[in-house]
Amino acid sequence: MIPPIKRRYGLLNELHDRLERIAGPEKILAYFLRRAVNFFDAQGGVVHLVDRATGALKPAATIGPRDVVDDETALRFLRNERPQVPRDVAMAPLLRDGGARGVVAIRRKGTPFQPGEGRFLCKIAALAANEVRRREEGHLREVRERIERKLLEDLRPEDAVYRILHGLKRLLRYDHSSAVLVHDAARGSFVLKAEQIAWKKGKSGRIGIGIPATAESVREIAREGAAFLLRPSEPARGGAASVAAALRFRPKEPGEPDEGVVLAAALGHRGTPVGILKVAARSPAALDESDLAVVRLFAGPAAAALHRSEARARLETTAERALRKGALADVARAVAHDVNNALGVAVPLLQQIAEEVRSGSPPERGVLQADLALVLDSLRIVKRVFSGMMAFARDARSAGAIDVGRCIAETLSLLEGAMARNGLKLETAVSPSVPRVRGNPTLFEQVLLNLVSNARDATPKGGTIRVGAAGAGPRVEIAIEDTGSGMDDAALERIREPFFTTKPDGSGLGLAICRAIVTEMGGDIAITSRSGAGTRVVVSLPAAGEAPVAESRAP
Fold this sequence. Notes:
- By secondary structure, this protein is an alpha+beta fold.
- It folds into three domains: 5-144, Beta-Lactamase; 152-307, Beta-Lactamase; 396-555, 2-Layer Sandwich (Heat Shock Protein 90).
- The protein is 46% helix and 21% strand.
- The strands form four sheets. A six-stranded antiparallel β-sheet has the order 7-6-5-10-9-8, with helices on both faces. It has a five-stranded mixed β-sheet with strand order 12-14-15-17-16, with helices on one face. Strands 2-1-4-3 form a four-stranded antiparallel β-sheet.
- A hairpin with a 4-residue loop joins strand 5 (177-184) and strand 6 (189-197).
- The longest helix has 70 residues, at 289-358.
- The protein is elongated.
- The relative contact order is 0.07.
């Protein structure tokens, strides 16, 4: 019997009211199914959703027996093939963007369903599907906003690309891979900067490969908002073809399955080509136009974040070179006095010895040995100073095990003379068994030189600077502490910001570069300070896993 019109309108009003207040799609479908089963006096029901990656059905909600309808019948019903359905079973599709996303089926044993009842089930199923779509759109909007806020942070390029891919993983369901390619104008290619592989657990072996960039493909990615839905089984045309060619990575990974569908979004920023965003799935039906719309919306903030991070990296590189030159000049001024003193001792002694030999009255053997010992000591000082300067001046990027104690000693040897002349006391506490760390020695010494120089600049005459290093479990901690002016809470809060500085002539990038180098080494920097009570900086780095370096000595 067809339910009276009053009951039907009552159920529609109830669903309108209640479904709007239910949060998640799963709860919406469960509530809808329960009310449908009760309304039609049925014994059971099931809601099946279509897995877009595999095309198979998976249950989303069930009441009573699970065998209301078999999967083959449900799939044929969704394909409009008019399968033979028992008369005591009513079915209705759950639609999504013009396509079927699932099916609801209910069974009323012994009482056949009338055509009007089936139509009403379709009506309330459409109401439930619409509410599910609204929740999913709201969820996508919230996730995208959170991701966009994350992308607004100042990130290095290698962090930005993986944050972009992580965000895509939360927005889309894909089972093949996602990737970010960055346009390298100098090389005339797209460089694979990051790739997340969903079909296997493991890292990509293709990071850094270059794909030649054609003029047409560069024009396409410069267009903000350009996005393409590509299926390898179908020929791409126009700009889509040039972008598709840039997304064919070679060589393929061992065992890599074929791509059934690819979403490609151009990452362009204010007419400047930045790169390409790629998402791939195995099944041709796994991604569609609605997913392409998500990628198109996401591409804008992703392009801006990547453009900003690349620009920041270039600025940091330029600033790093300038700071190195400035620091080298500062070191040169600081050690000039020590070199002059050393040469001031050695040169007169050598001149005196030469004069005595020329006049035929050489000094006594003991006196000569003592003079030559003084000359040798002075020349060793000069050699040590210039060796330290040359080591710092090198821009080598090779990484290896770093002798922490030796680096500290060599760095402090460049500064201790100037600090003593300025009335500063230098105290060191470097453990003779401090483990090695892994990284580039030149860059590590630059971090030490920057941090100790900051402590020196903040400490007035009569103050003390303490430098210590020791193992702390699996890590190594290097501490630089001063008794200088310190920082208030406001300055300490902003100290992580690039370009923020408390020095009248500072650039604000010195500490940012130190953080970048330390982060690259797998470590971090912690700063504590109080206004008028000094500052303590602790650099924590992972130990290299080698035996302690017994020969390291405190300077």
